[in-house]
Structure formats: structure tokens, C-alpha cells
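Propose amino acids for all 647 sites.
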């Protein structure tokens, strides 16, 4: 189950990253370093429908440039059976003055027409581009009405600050016009005038669509001039039904994505938080008095046995950084060396500038301690402090240089194999020490003071993971659906909601992982409390009065445990200040030597060797040795499409 949950968290993290970056790939971004910077404050469109059903469409687009530019381009789609007649008329004004030296390049395809206007200028220019199009068969003609189902704006590379669109022609006093910008876009303002309709939209986003859906009563002129295109059926009832369906669908989609889904996601998040809080509350560590002190160790345990039994930290996993806890790996190693000196299995002496450790063969050594000494001495009986743990030595810098200069994959793999060998050596040796510690725990009859999660706690943990995972999946699916199906910017808000949920998931996963490692058994809390009080006492030693120091016995063991808790230097200073000597001559010489902790700090070599082996084993080679489309169908079934940009 732990592997499944760990894998699920990694999968969710990758999914979150994918969901965050995928929408960006759906946006049309010009990657050219010479990309033109500009904005489109205004779009003014005018559609004039003639009595014969053809139309004149004029568009005026205002560009504000923030960089130099070569020109502009516009497109008009023919999707829906429309025909674009003749060459469109193009004019441009730059900063209020008409520009005559422009060149227009026309590209005509099945989908539509693209005009590329070469009209170069510089940063700060305001360009108003005016294009007049002649369009045939723009209306769908039925026996009772003529229908306009067309979107003039669909694929612009930038959004518009405002859009003003006028439609006139035919009988303006009859019929109806509706304007749409999508299910989630701002509803356009539509106003009937004496000659037709005015449509206004503020802040139309890039690639946003403006769709016009209108009808007029059929006229004799339309009927006579378009006999070949006349559909011999009525459509007025179908027209209003389509508008009712659009309105209903818009309300439903907005209700789903603005109200229902956010509430469902929030509900799952709250359920997940509630389940996790139950787990964390049920497995919480009880609070102990800060001032509680115990002046002698509750049990005479070897440092590594204490680390495993009371703090649930294994020698090998802590060294490999696979688990963390209150005890640092280097302190576990230092305390073990001092413990072995105190118990007579090692001696310490100084020769000149060197610190010498000598191994003493005698009975009573536990198997894990023998394995530890093998790691420390590597088969020798006497070593200098600089030679400790020499079997794990790697010159990372030299190997890195060799790796960079290696010419073949075989040479590189040979270098990596040195790191793998050392890492495997430490993993195997550390495992032998850790297994020996567990055997020692069993031999001493030490109770397990940590427990597994109960069935209830496991259930709530799984429910918490599932609830938060479901909320993230809903965010991801909603984002992808909104971008892919509607091109709606609402998807970004779901991404913003996804990020804190992902953060909560990772936070709770981390907290539960730590709590699972240190979930105290209620029947064994007294053991933990005693060691907690003993640790408090050690941390308080520097502030002890002389009378309190007299109550402390077995300073040898105090120094060993102080080293395990990272307090060795402070305790040693107190011993020197009050001229307190230790019963073990070798340990006393160590404590009173000029620089005793230089030797202990050299055990950091082991940490650096293990880290270097991991780095070397994973050496790798550095790998570095706007189109303005024509758009698709509108949601009322319309055709056309118009886009543009600048270059």
C-alpha cells in the first residue's frame, strides 16, 4: 500500500505539471525572437446586406505597436458556402495619416482568403487597417425567412479592447439579431437601430469568437435573385428553438463550471482535509513538559540501538537519506565510536598532529558493532582519523573530470560503475549493521514503542488521498475540456485552483509519511518520555549550577548520548570548565585533548563518500554539446471566421 500511495503521489505530481503546461501549448505563441509586440484596442465592423442577399463587409482594425513591424494580415473564412468576390479593398492610416505605399499579398484557399499587408513601421505607431470585402450567398434562404449565421471574428492572435459591429440592410423593423461570444464569454450588447443593429463587446480575448445569428422575413427580391439557393421549407420556428437551446446550454454550462464543479471540488478537498486531520490527530505525539529532566539514562543502550528503538531510525536508511528523523547520521556514527571507546573496544591516543584509533579484541562485542568496526577499519587494527571508512573513498572531482573527457560510452559506464560499487558496498555493509541492531533489540527484549497505522487510520488515509486526487483530476479534466472544447480562459482559474490542492496533497503525504514512521504505541509512551526527559537534561547541562552537576553520574555515558544528540561540544566544555574527569582514561584523554572534535568531524567523510558515490553513479552527459487561421463552426452552427495579426 505504501508503494501504491507513493507512486500515486508521483503520478499526480507529473499530472499537475502536465495540466499546468499543456494549456500553454494550446495557445498560439510565436517563438521567433523577432516577434512583433502590439495590442488591438479597437475593432469596428460593418456588414451591409443588399436586397439580392449579397453583402459588403468592412472591418477597421486599430493596431498599437510596441516594436518595429513589417506589416499586418487579416483572414476571412469561406466555411459555410460563402463566396468572396473580387479583390478586397485595403487602406491603412499610420498615426492619422493615410499611407499609400502599401503592398497587399493575397492568398486564396478552400478555407478562405488571407491578405498580407506590407506596411512597415516602428515602435509607437498606431495603424488603422481598413478592409472592404464583397461576399456572396451570406444568407441561408428559406421559404419564410432569410437567416444570417456567421462569425466575422474568430482567430485573431491578440484580444480586442472593444468591438463595435453594425449590421444593416433588408427590413430593419422586422426580424431579430442575436450575438454570441461562446458559452463562457461576456454577453454582447445588441441594440436595434433604424437601419439595423449595433453590437458591442468589451475585452474580447485572443481567438475569441463573435457570432451573429439573425433573421429577416423573406422578400420577393431575395426569392427572385436566389432561386438556385432557396430551401423550400420554413425555418422561423427552428431559428427560435436554436436560440432557446443556446440560452439553455449556456446557462447549464455556466452553472456546471461556475457553481457545481467548484462546489464538488471544494467538497472533495474538505473531505480530504478532514480525513487527513483525523489520521494526524489519531497518531499525534503527546506533548511532554519542556522542563522535564532525567539525570541518568533510562537504559544503557548502544547509540544505534537507541536510535532504532526510540527514534525508529535505521543506520543504513539514514545514511542513504531514505529516511529522516531527529538524529543526524554523523552523530549516530560519532556516538558509536565514543561508545566503543568507553566500553574498551577502541582506544584513542594522539601522536604528534595525528589522532590514532586502535581496535581492541575482546569478548562481548555485538554483531552489529563488529560490522560497524569492519566499516570503520576496513580490516586493519589501527588507523589515523583521516583513514576512517577508507573503503568508501571516492575522488568525485577527479572522476568527474575523467567522465567529461571520456570518449566512449564504455569509458563513461566504467566511471559510473565505481560510484555504483561504493554505493552498493555501503548499502550492503549498512544493511548488515541495521540487521544486527534489530537482532540486538530482540536479544535485549526491548519492546517496540512504535506501531503501524490501525485499520481505521489506514482507511481515512486512503480516503484522504482519494478525495484530493479526485479533486485534482476534476480540475485537470475541466481545464483540458474548457481549452479543447471551448478555448475558454476559464481553464486558467481551474489551474489556479489545482495548484493549492496539489500543494495540500504533497504536504499531507509528507506529514503522514513522517507520522507513519513515528507513530507511538500508547502503551510505550513512558519509554519515549523518559528518553525525552533525558535529552532535555543533556541540552540543559551548559546552564547547570555546580550543585546540579554533582547530581550527574556516569559522565562517560552522558558524553556518548550527548554526542548522539549533537550536544558533545557543549558537554565537553562543561567537563573542562569544572575539571570533571572521566573514568575511562582513553575517553578522558580524548575529551581533554586540544582539538577532540576534529577527529569526530572526520566521520563526515563517510557521509561525503556515500553522497559522492550516488553522484558518480548517476553522471550524465550535458545534452547541450501567428498564423491567424480561419476558425471552425460557431455554436449556433454558423460558418465564416475571421482572424489576423501582425508581422
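Proposal:
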Amino acid at each position: 500500500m505504501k508503494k501504491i500511495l507513493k507512486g500515486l503521489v508521483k503520478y499526480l505530481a507529473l499530472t499537475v505539471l502536465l495540466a499546468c503546461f499543456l494549456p500553454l501549448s494550446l495557445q498560439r505563441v510565436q517563438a521567433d525572437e523577432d516577434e512583433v509586440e502590439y495590442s488591438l484596442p479597437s475593432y469596428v465592423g460593418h456588414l451591409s446586406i443588399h436586397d439580392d442577399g449579397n453583402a459588403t463587409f468592412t472591418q477597421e482594425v486599430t493596431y498599437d505597436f510596441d516594436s518595429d513591424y513589417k506589416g499586418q494580415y487579416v483572414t476571412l473564412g469561406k466555411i459555410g458556402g460563402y463566396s468572396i468576390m473580387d479583390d478586397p479593398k485595403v487602406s491603412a492610416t499610420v498615426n492619422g495619416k493615410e499611407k499609400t505605399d502599401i503592398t497587399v499579398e493575397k492568398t486564396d484557399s478552400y478555407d478562405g482568403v488571407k491578405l498580407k499587408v506590407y506596411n512597415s513601421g516602428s515602435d509607437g505607431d498606431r495603424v488603422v487597417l481598413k478592409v472592404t470585402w464583397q461576399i456572396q450567398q451570406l444568407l441561408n434562404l428559406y421559404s419564410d425567412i432569410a437567416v444570417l449565421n456567421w462569425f466575422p471574428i474568430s482567430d485573431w492572435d491578440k484580444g480586442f479592447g472593444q468591438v463595435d459591429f453594425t449590421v444593416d440592410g433588408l427590413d430593419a423593423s422586422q426580424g431579430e439579431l442575436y450575438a454570441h461570444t461562446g458559452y463562457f464569454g461576456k454577453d454582447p450588447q445588441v441594440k436595434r437601430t433604424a437601419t439595423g443593429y449595433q453590437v458591442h463587446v468589451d475585452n474580447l480575448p485572443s481567438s475569441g469568437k463573435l457570432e451573429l445569428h439573425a433573421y429577416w422575413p423573406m422578400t420577393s427580391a431575395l426569392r427572385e435573385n436566389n432561386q438556385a439557393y432557396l430551401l423550400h421549407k420554413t425555418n422561423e420556428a427552428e431559428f427560435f428553438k436554436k436560440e432557446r437551446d443556446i440560452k439553455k446550454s449556456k446557462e447549464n454550462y455556466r452553472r456546471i463550471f461556475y457553481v457545481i464543479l467548484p462546489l464538488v471540488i471544494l467538497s472533495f478537498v474538505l473531505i480530504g482535509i478532514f480525513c487527513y486531520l483525523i489520521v494526524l490527530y489519531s497518531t499525534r505525539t503527546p506533548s511532554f513538559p519542556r522542563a522535564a529532566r532525567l539525570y541518568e539514562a533510562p537504559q544503557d543502550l548502544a547509540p544505534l540501538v537507541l536510535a532504532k528503538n526510540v527514534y525508529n531510525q535505521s543506520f543504513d536508511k539514514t545514511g542513504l537519506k531514505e529516511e529522516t528523523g531527529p538524529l543526524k547520521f554523523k552523530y549516530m556514527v560519532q556516538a558509536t565510536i565514543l561508545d566503543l571507546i568507553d566500553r574498551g573496544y577502541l582506544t584513542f591516543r594522539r601522536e604528534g598532529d595525528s589522532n590514532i584509533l586502535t581496535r581492541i579484541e575482546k569478548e562481548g562485542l555485538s554483531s552489529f558493532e563488529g560490522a560497524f568496526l569492519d566499516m570503520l577499519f576496513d580490516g586493519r587494527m589501527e588507523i589515523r582519523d583521516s583513514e576512517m571508512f577508507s573503503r568508501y573513498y571516492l575522488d568525485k572531482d577527479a572522476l568527474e573530470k575523467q567522465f567529461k573527457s571520456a570518449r566512449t560510452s564504455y569509458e563513461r559506464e566504467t566511471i559510473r560503475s565505481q560510484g555504483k560499487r561504493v554505493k552498493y558496498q555501503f548499502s550492503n555493509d549498512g544493511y548488515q549493521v541495521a540487521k544486527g541492531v534489530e537482532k540486538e533489540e530482540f536479544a535485549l527484549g526491548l519492546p517496540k514503542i512504535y506501531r503501524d497505522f490501525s485499520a481505521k487510520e489506514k482507511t481515512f488515509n486512503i480516503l484522504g488521498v482519494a478525495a484530493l486526487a479526485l479533486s485534482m483530476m476534476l480540475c485537470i479534466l475541466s481545464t483540458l475540456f474548457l481549452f479543447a472544447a471551448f478555448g475558454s480562459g476559464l481553464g486558467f482559474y481551474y489551474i489556479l485552483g489545482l495548484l493549492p490542492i496539489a500543494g495540500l496533497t504533497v504536504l499531507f503525504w509528507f506529514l503522514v509519511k513522517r507520522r507513519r514512521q513515528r507513530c507511538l504505541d500508547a502503551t510505550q509512551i513512558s519509554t519515549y518520555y523518559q528518553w525525552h526527559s533525558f535529552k532535555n537534561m543533556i541540552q540543559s547541562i551548559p546552564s547547570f549550577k555546580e550543585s546540579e552537576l554533582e547530581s550527574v553520574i556516569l559522565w562517560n555515558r552522558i558524553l556518548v548520548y550527548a554526542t548522539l544528540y549533537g550536544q558533545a561540544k557543549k558537554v565537553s566544555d562543561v567537563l573542562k570548565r569544572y575539571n570533571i574527569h572521566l573514568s575511562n582514561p582513553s575517553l578522558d584523554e580524548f575529551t581533554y585533548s586540544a582539538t577532540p572534535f576534529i577527529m569526530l568531524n572526520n566521520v563526515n567523510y563517510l557521509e561525503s563518500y556515500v553522497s559522492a558515490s550516488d553522484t558518480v553513479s548517476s553522471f550524465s552527459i550535458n545534452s547541450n554539446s501567428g498564423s491567424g487561421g480561419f476558425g471552425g463552426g460557431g455554436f449556433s452552427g454558423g460558418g465564416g471566421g475571421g482572424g489576423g495579426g501582425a508581422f
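Residues 36-252+638-646 form a domain with the Immunoglobulin-like fold (CATH 2.60.40). The chain has 18 helices and 20 strands.
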